[in-house]
Amino acid sequence: MKKTLLAAALLAGFATAGVAQAETSVTLYGILDTGYGYQNYKFDRADADITSKSSGLRDGTFNGSRWGLKGAEDLGDGLRAIFQLEASVNLGSQPGDGQRGFARQSFVGLSSDNWGTFTMGRQYSAGTETFLVPNGVNLGDADKFFGSTGLGEGTRVENSFKYVTPDLSGFKFIAMYGTGDDGGTTVGRNTDGSSFSDRGTRVSVGALYANGPIGVGASYDRQSSSGNDALTSWQINGAYDFEVVKLGLAYGQDRHGKLGWNGSGKGIVGEDMVQAINAADAKLGLNAKGDDFALSNDFKSNNYHVGLSAPVGGGTLYAGWNYSTSNQDDADKWGDAADNASSYHVNYVYPLSKRTSLYTYASYAKNIGYVKDLKGTEAGVGLNHKF
Q: Minimal CA–CA distance to 340: which of 377, 378, 302, 376?
């Protein structure tokens, strides 16, 4: 249960006379998620046999560990001033890798029962908010295959203006415009393989419908970048709850790269293994992929997702499949060093209470990041606590 604090209590030491605080509230909330995990990556082609194994404490498997503040002030006539500040937490290594302030979310705005919500700051794109289907984690997460879903860097848009309509009989529409930033946030891959952070304008629009057992979502994102064609990504997904089982399906396309891609080979297997794979390919006379397994400027992919979840033994069992085809196997790109990517995933979550759950998971991925014969397996158990 979230801890809701009256602003009068939170700001007691700072209050000034004449300020009405009874209609203002601030909520402190968070998620702590950690456990044990095991990963094994293997590249096996011709005379190359490269492996990388690791195990130990894993933080933020089912939910990124975080803490935050959000609040609202009643301005009358159904209008409220709202804000949210959310920061990452790494339970195994404080203060965490590259964490900076309230990097997960930070925005302020106005919300109306009749006119919807308008916010400004760093906030989630429409692709994240409209992906409604049952989904996995880590290697089995759809954001390893789709460019505009999930919670990667490219799905948090800095310097953005966002409008969400009120609920219209189950329908909601989202429109976002980002004015760009001056660096520091990875949002895609350049043709030379490096990540780019100096980005131009961002457009993100989406719609969702949720009513009873039916859920449908769709989004389109366009991100301009200096020296490259604009990255575009769209997806459509739907879910139906049969009570015995919930089925989710999704399809999408990426062009000129992948927005906020969490599925790049280097990001998953690490730089040392990337170098070893490139050296092995060079010996075989295959196209060099570059230090970051570069995506071409005319990159194209078609992405698919199927997810099933069902109540089992007091908890929830999930099984899912992701698949993505691309043109990276063209002769002028990676050629025979590329192949279609896929993953299989299963997890089980058992609630100990409304706020605390135990979980276990396992995944198998093939041709990670479109790199042919690069495979991965993982498994783990953990504890998730919400406050």
A: 302
